[in-house]
Amino acid sequence: MRYAIISDIHGNLEALQAVLRECHMAKIETLLCTGDIVGYGANPKECLSIVRQFKVISVAGNHDWAVGGRLDFSHFTDDGKKAVEWTRRHILMDDIAYLNSLDLVVKNKELTLVHASLHDPHHFIYMTNLTKASLSFFHCWMSQFVL
Questions:
Q1: For residue 6, what are the β-bridge partners?
Q2: Which helix (H) or strand (E) holds 6?
Q3: Do residues 72 and 42 touch, judged by C-beta distance below 8 A?
Q4: How far is CA 117 from CA 71, 120, 121, in A?
Q5: pLDDT tens digits, the chain, 147 residues: what are they?
Q6: Taking Cα atoms as reference points, which of 129, 36, 17 lies closest to residue 80?
Q7: CB–CB of 26/4 below 8 Å?
């Protein structure tokens, strides 16, 4: 099986279309997304439509859950807050339901997907130092023994 991993689309339709063209030429069979389908870009509705149409296996990113109302975004930057509010006004309720349906972790026998840290996915911790990364890698290693 040939996978492609995409991430942080952030409503950028042109970039998503370019990546999908490359995936088609590379004969990718399954698309995986590690979150943040929406946020910042001008085409969140279109990007969500494409992700759903292509049955992309996706986890929730912090912007996805913030737009859906599942995450407090008061700690976001000013631009991030504006992006969440703007995106909410430019997508459909069905899109909100889809974003809220995304899990934080998707795992099967071949892979584990997460947007941020595997050891604490609810807090969307950035891997900014060795300690944080080590915790996530340790959790990944330990989780291989439990499915």
A1: 33
A2: strand 3-6
A3: no
A4: 16, 5, 5
A5: 899 999 999 999 999 999 999 999 999 999 999 999 999 999 999 999 999 999 999 999 999 999 999 999 999 999 999 999 999 999 999 999 999 999 999 998 888 899 988 888 999 988 888 987 888 778 777 766 655
A6: 36
A7: yes
